Amino acid sequence: MIDVLSITSKKILLLFWTLFFLYSCSAQKQLIEGEEETVLKENLQYYLYFPKEYEKEDSKLFPLLLFLHGGGESGETLGELKKNGPPKMLAEGYPFPFMVLAPQNPHKKKWWNVHSVMQLLDTVIAHHRVDPKRIYLSGLSRGGSAAWDLAVQYPDRFAALAVVCGMAPVPYASWIDRELPIWVFHGTEDQSIPFSESEDMVAALKEMGYDVAFTVYEGVGHNSWEQAYATEALYEWMVKQKRK
Predict the structure, then answer these.
(1) The domain containing residue 59 runs over which residues?
(2) Confidence class of residue 41 from pLDDT cuts 50, 70 and 90?
(3) In its keyword annotation, does this UniProt entry include Transmembrane (predicted)?
(4) CA-CA distance, 144 to 244, in Å (whole number)?
(5) What pTM was computed for the model?
């Protein structure tokens, strides 16, 4: 008598392993290894300011402030930068004691490409008499967020950092150079980027022993940059800083 049950079980088992083999082959084909070299091009317009002493002292290296604007000036004409911060002050004739590099984010609704910004900075340093140990970094709003990002990703490049109402990468606070002097500004009534962004970042940095100053503007909204960049002590503080 033929064992029908045994034959049926063997057929089912054979079918199972056949399907498993086909599935395995298919899965292996879905997972491949590859490599591609990517090239990102960015068109950065910028303002570059030279103090009067630059031409007179032709063998001297000068400090440089890298300033990153906010979202409102992104993707517009370069002249839009003159609405706020150091570019506005330059347009009004303010005599900064150092060079100022102010690039423009060409994208209206994209974050700053910080790697392109660093390429621009390196080009300026290579072609002008910039002291690489006295590069100051500052930004407001979206530019303030980018300033934090630059300090995290390039911890050995800057001599001082001033951030005005920027979103802060608190989980990566420890990546910032522990010797970097930092000054943060924020309004308590900021409805665009919450005051807590700066508050939490400053608390985290201080807990780890960083040198951080925090200026709080009670009752001030998102435009805290108007008071922050009008602070003469900010620029006096910057010129005292130098990387070891």
Answers:
(1) 46-239
(2) confident
(3) no
(4) 25
(5) 0.86
